[in-house]
Each structure stands twice: as C-alpha cells, then as structure tokens.
Give the backbone structure.
Amino acid sequence: MIAALVMIIFSVLFRNKEIWEAGVGPKEATDVRDMAFGFLLVCSILALLLGLLGVSTLWIKNRCCNICLSILLFPTWVIIVIFGVVLTMASGVSTDLAKELCDGVKVAETQLAEEAANGGDNADDTNMGGDSSNNEAVQEALDFLSTDVIDTYMCSEYCPCVAVANNPWLKIKLEDAQQKNRGGFTVQVPVKNEDGSDKTETVTDENGVESEEPVTEEYTTPYPWYFGDKFYDVGDLTSTGTDVTQLNVKDLGTFETFQSCIEHAHTRTETDWNKEFLLSASMFKEQKNGVDIFTLVGWLEENYMCSGFCVTDMFFQTRNISEGIPTQGCLEPLAEDFGSVFRGIGVAGIICGIVLFLAFIFSYCLWKQYDD
C-alpha cells in the first residue's frame, strides 16, 4: 500500500511538471503526458485497491474472496514489475538517448539543407512522411535547435549589447569564437607558398591568353563585439575598443537580451545591410506547430541556467547578458530531471510489484475452509 501511494505521488508530480504547466509544448506532447499519467495512475490505484483487499481478509473470512484476490494479484504484480523495470532502465539511459536524438537532428538538418541547396523537387517531400506541413514543423524545430543565429548576431552591429563590467566575451579567443560558429564577413585571402610568397595558378582567358592569377580562399572574419558605444575585434584580448560611428548601428540602441533584439528586429525595415539578419530572426517568431520559441527557451533557462540544446551557446536568449556566458546546454539537465521522476516511479513500481508477488504467494495460505 505504501509503494502504491508513492507511485501515485510520483504520477502526480509527473503530471504537474512545470514544463507542462508552462504551455510550451505542442498538443501532441500534452496528449502523451495525459496518456502516460492515466496509465501510471491506474496501475497505482489498482495496486492500492489490492492492498486494501488484502488487508480486508483479516476480517472477511470468505474462501471465494481469497481466491479472487489471488487471481487478481498474479497479472497485477507481473504488469507493475515489468512497468517499473522498463521505467527504471529508461531513466538510466535518458541522457544517452537525448544525445542520440540530438545527433539525429543534426543529420536530418544536414540532409534538409542539402536537398534545399540542390533545388530538387523532393525538398518539400522528404523521407519524414511526405507531409509538407509535417516537414515544415520539423524544419522549424531544426532551425530552433541551431545555435548559429544567437552566437552570430548577439552583441554584433545587428544586436548591440549594453556595456558589461568585467566583460567575459572580450576574453574569448578567436578560434574559440569560430568554433562556436560566430558568423561574420567573408573575404578572399591569398594562399601562401611554403616560402611565404603568394601562390599563383595559370589561367587561360577566352582568347587563349595565359596569365598568372593569385590563388585565394574564403576566410570568415567574425562580427566584432558591440558593447555600449564601442566595438571590439573578436580575439583581440588587449583591445580597449573603438567608438561606434555607424549611424545605422547607433539608431538601434543597445539590448540586454537576445529576445529583446529579436522582438525589435520584427519592427525594422529591411535593407541590403540587415536583410540576412532579418531572415534569420524570422525563425524566432511564433512557430506554426504551436510552440513559442521564447516561452520554451525562457522556461529552460530559468530552471536550468542553460543555453542551447546540442551545444552550449555563448549567450542566453532570455536572460540578461549581465549574467555572463552560459556554462551548460539544456539537453543533459533536462534529461536528468525527467529521468529522476521516471526513476522514482520505476523503483516504487518494482517494490510494489515485489510486495504484490509475495502477497500472491502467501495468498494460497488463505485458501482454506473456514469453520462456520
């Protein structure tokens, strides 16, 4: 009975998990939650009723009642033990499964990007079901999981940040910022030979005339950091900053959160200068599948002090930049949190099932003929 009560308590905790109450998930996720909660509650109440029925045999001296109790105990303890074992095992691998899912999202995102780049007719009819509306929702989810937008544009000329004391971003090395996909300006730089001279190649024009042309390659210079009224080159750890003189940047003001910048971006007039940024910002509008980006991210950042899913972003999306650089992604703590709930339900289920199994064995002792 005690184990059954514990199962009921954990079931209610699962049902009232804050992420459900925040209304951040699509309707399908809520349906799964309600179905899982219903099954958990039914198993818990059934175990509790059997426990009460077992206790009642102390006063009800009826052989038929005892036989019925034994018949009911057998399938019940089997189902509850299996259910408990499955939940306990699932909780133990929840983090690994979440990481595998994240890897799968990266693969799917690459495939969709390749199809779109190829311009094929199948770009809107992928192997994910052939339903264009479903593929659109999947693409939105993939865009959401991407960390490039916030790491590229936050505290740049498109989203200037307020000045920060002991600014930790100014201590980030160039290679570390590039590893975080800090986007920027793409330029052609000359390729060097081993002796330091510029590498050249022979090029023949349409008239058959040969000439030596320098060999170049693309190089991306990350967008400078913009804090207050100054900007700083990424990776220049000794820079004291350069005054901002661009009027289009000054007119934007400064922002404390990425969310406030994106909300402001939706009011801007598109120009050649900001066209690419506004296109990226558009993905953060309310999603067509019912999930609001900043409601979901805000809940995660508030509860786990995290940013990003598959990798850790350099910025929070909804928290003030004065709180510094995020130190963890949201995937692992989220999986561990839900795993702990499932683990509690699973262990309680195993204990309850074992107790019911023992009750099933000893119930045969009650199959005796009582004297009238």
User: Anything to note?
Assistant: The first strand starts at residue 184 and ends at 190. The mean pLDDT is 76.
